[in-house]
Amino acid sequence: MKPRDRTAEATPDLRKYAWLAIVTAVLTVLLKGSAWAITGSVGLLSDAAESMVNLVAAIVALVSLTIAARPADDDHHFGHSKAEYFSAALKGS
Asked: 0.85 exceeded by the pTM?
């Protein structure tokens, strides 16, 4: 009988939070874009454009978490968890 991988059971799936961040960012961009269309305010347009940065960061986080969730293989003996650092580097810059 094969031993069970307890690390996979103990690690929560954080991708649902990345999806929540994506949905929230899309709604924020749509609301700010709609407000800009109604008012013509350049400030709202600028804020909507800045919110796109949050959307890109959330998408990168989802991709990184998806890669990090992969199990260890022949090329990555300790798994793929270091992929999360790429997302953190992008978010921090």
From this structure: no
